[in-house]
Design a protein that fits this description.
heterodimer; A: about 425 residues; alpha+beta; six-stranded mixed beta barrel; two-stranded antiparallel ribbon; B: about 230 residues; alpha/beta; six-stranded mixed beta sheet; 7 helices; about 30% strand; binds adenosine-5'-triphosphate; binds magnesium ion
Chain lengths: ~425, ~230
């Protein structure tokens, strides 16, 4: 009997090919959208991680509480030792120190008087030690607009828009006016080596980037740094791992109420990044649900499944002594296989498209004008394990659900009534 | 000469709910059919022929009275028992053939055997026999859309007969056929009736069918109007 039904299924194109096409289309979109959103969210996380949060970040408890104010007076002291320890204890991560700070940039004229001035966000990173890879991480070479990267102490880069506003070109002097770790005012002169544009609105507005040693001198922060960032060597943020790592680190280092003892925060625990992490996790569930409903409705309405077009067959099966419930169940089983076939096909095609977008990316820089969030200007899909099975949820459920809906008419009707309808 | 009764109908009524009231499709039917009869239920449209045939086929139940088919009281059977009766003992022939279009002639005829516990060899033999009876052994690989109406109905007869049921119910089997094809399939059924002792009950108002019947039960407005038995010598 099963063999007979499968034969019928394979030969009847309206029962097999069409539903499979509909299902595989939906599954394809589900898989693709999932990989796309994972990629997009992942890139957004990476971007935030690289420029600001790290996958995890170590700082003092007090600094963590006032994170948004960039409070260098609450920075980590003896950060070199801490860095060494982190590198030993977490060898699967790359660790790097940074100082983020706020200040004023003053461009003097030839007589030393202020020509122009503007507020800046400063970033001191390991550029010159020769054993960091911060310049690759921040994509500095590719982001360069004018000039070159700092090659020696005393050189700094400005964001290009900021440099234009200040009317500064590479080779000019600028003065950083800020406050030291102890709260007194500091002035430090830099030569502008080049200008950069990252394609990230908040980084491009007004920033100065210099080697961390220069910043330490400028802000009187010997062997101190605001934060130590940790990055997965794999390059991908893994939320659970990062949160677990932070929890363990924090339970080991909670030295009473010491405000200056270090603590670790995962990307999701900084700012509103947690919301985005949650959102990206919810998305896949939403996508599946939407497609389950959409596809069930399409299949149901098209009458591609269940009894609508099959009264003749149902009638004859009743006549030869098959029970109504058995017919109904076999139709559901049939639709299950249709759903499975469509899901396999759709997943394959969806993965292929996702792979294309993962490899080549889609440029959306045109749509990004004025965005305040850190978002990448090229969207790349990212294929993860769920992409291999997530399409099966809407794919199989929609066909089975659609058949149950359309077949219920068969199930609920009297045998004689069914029989008459096929006679008509 | 025909002794054992295949069908016994006593005081049978069938009422359908219509709106708030009821419509009586069959009233006070009393009939016995013996094994091996070649009988027709004859009457105008709406007289209740199909309704009675459906009850005999255990697809519907009487509202009152009793219908015994091969010893089974139709109204008392569970869904499973009714299905089992159809599976083992009944064959159906329809006006519109109801062949499965994507399956071959052979597969269509084999279909009723799939529910019975039979080996593939047994099935093969039975299918080939049935196709032999209706003269379609050369068409086993064809599919219904490639056949003429007469050929389709012969496939349907083979399908109804393949398991050698005790009772075949045929509702307007010639309605879609021309005269030549009608006579052809009627002759086939007459032969099978004689050789296999299968009881045939037709529902019809076609004169060609009526001319083959050995007994004519006339229905009018759900009642038996006349019951004529034609003796072989007349
Ligand atoms: N399910 C039902 N509900 C209500 N009325 C019904 C139902 N089935 C049949 N009837 C009515 O019962 C009567 C007998 O119907 P039936 O189908 O048995 O007629 P018939 O003799 O087979 O006619 P035809 O020659 O047109 O096939 C008709 O008036 C029909 O409208
Ligand atoms: Mg009828």
């Amino acid at each position: 009997m099963i063999k007979f039904l499968i034969k019928g299924l394979l030969r009847d194109k309206s029962r097999s090919r069409l539903p499979i096409i509909v299902v595989s289309l939906g599954v394809m979109l589900t898989v693709f959208m999932h990989a796309y959103i994972t990629g997009f969210m992942g890139d957004t996380f990476e971007m935030n991680a690289k420029f600001s949060t790290g996958h995890v970040k170590v700082m003092t408890r007090a600094y963590a509480e006032n994170l948004s104010q960039l409070p260098i007076d609450l920075a980590l002291t003896e950060s070199g030792e801490l860095l060494t320890n982190l590198r030993i204890n977490y060898p699967e991560m790359e660790w790097t120190q940074r100082i983020q700070f706020g200040g004023l940039i003053d461009a003097p004229d030839s007589t030393g008087e202020t020509r122009s001035q503007g507020p800046a966000i400063g970033l001191g990173i390991d550029l010159l030690s020769g054993n960091g890879n911060e310049s690759e991480r921040l994509n500095l070479s590719e982001s360069l607009v004018q000039g070159r990267l700092p090659a020696k102490a005393g050189e700094a880069m400005l964001s290009d828009d900021f440099a234009k506003k200040l009317n500064v070109i590479p080779g000019d002097d600028v003065t950083l006016i800020g406050s030291t770790m102890n709260g007194s005012m500091s002035m430090y002169n830099f030569i502008v080596s080049g200008t950069v544009r990252f394609g990230v609105e908040i980084m491009d507005r007004g920033s100065i980037i210099a080697d961390i040693e220069d910043i330490r001198i400028a802000l009187d922060m010997e062997d101190a740094s605001g934060e130590i960032l940790g990055f997965e060597k794999s390059g991908f943020y893994e939320n659970e791992k990062a949160e677990t790592m932070s929890a363990i680190f924090n339970s080991n280092t909670s030295e009473g109420d010491d405000e200056y003892s270090p603590m670790m925060k995962s990307l999701s625990q900084q700012g509103n990044m947690g919301q985005y992490v949650q959102m990206s996790e919810l998305w896949s569930a939403y996508i599946s649900l939407i497609f389950i409903f959409a596809m069930s409705l399409v299949l149901w309405n098209a009458g591609l499944l269940g009894g609508l077009r099959r009264y003749g067959e149902v009638g004859i099966r009743l006549a030869i002594g098959e029970e109504k419930g058995h017919i109904y169940r076999s139709m559901i089983l049939e639709s299950f296989f249709i759903g499975l076939a469509g899901s396999v096909l759709g997943t394959t095609i969806g993965l292929f498209f996702a792979w294309l977008v993962q490899t080549y990316g889609i440029d959306i820089s045109g749509m990004m004008k004025g965005a305040s969030m850190m978002m990448p200007s090229t969207i790349r899909a990212r294929i993860t394990t769920p992409d291999f099975y997530i399409g099966f949820i809407p794919g199989v459920l929609s066909t089975v659900f659609g058949t149950m809906l359309s077949g219920i008419g068969i199930y609920r009707r009297q045998t004689a009534t069914l029989f008459k309808e096929l006679e008509a | 000469m025909e002794s054992s009764n295949t069908i016994i109908i006593k005081g049978l009524y069938k009422r359908f709910p219509v709106g708030k009231g009821e419509f009586t499709a069959l009233s006070d039917i009393n009939l016995n059919f013996a094994q091996g009869e070649f009988t027709g239920l004859i009457g105008p449209s709406g007289s209740g022929k199909t309704t009675l045939l459906n009850i005999l086929g255990s697809l519907d139940v009487p509202s009152a009275g009793e219908a015994l088919v091969l010893g089974n009281s139709i109204g008392m059977l569970s869904a499973r028992e009714a299905a089992n009766l159809r599976k083992v003992s009944l064959g159906f022939i329809f006006q519109s053939y109801n062949l499965l279009a994507v399956h071959t002639v052979y597969e269509n005829v084999e279909f009723p055997l799939l529910l019975l516990k039979l080996s593939a060899t047994e099935r093969h033999k039975m299918v080939m026999d049935a196709l032999e009876w209706v003269g379609l052994t050369d068409k086993i690989k064809s599919k219904p859309p490639q056949l003429s109406g007469g050929q389709c109905q012969r496939v349907a007869i083979a399908r109804a007969m393949v398991k050698k049921p005790s009772l075949v119910l045929a509702d307007e089997p010639t309605a879609n056929l021309d005269a030549a094809n009608s006579h052809h399939i009627l002759k086939t059924m007459e032969t099978l009736n004689r050789e296999l002792k299968t009881t045939f009950v037709f529902a019809t108002h076609d004169d060609k069918v009526i001319s083959y019947l050995r007994r004519k039960v006339f229905l009018l407005d759900g009642r038996i109007d006349k019951d004529e038995i034609i003796h072989p010598n007349s």
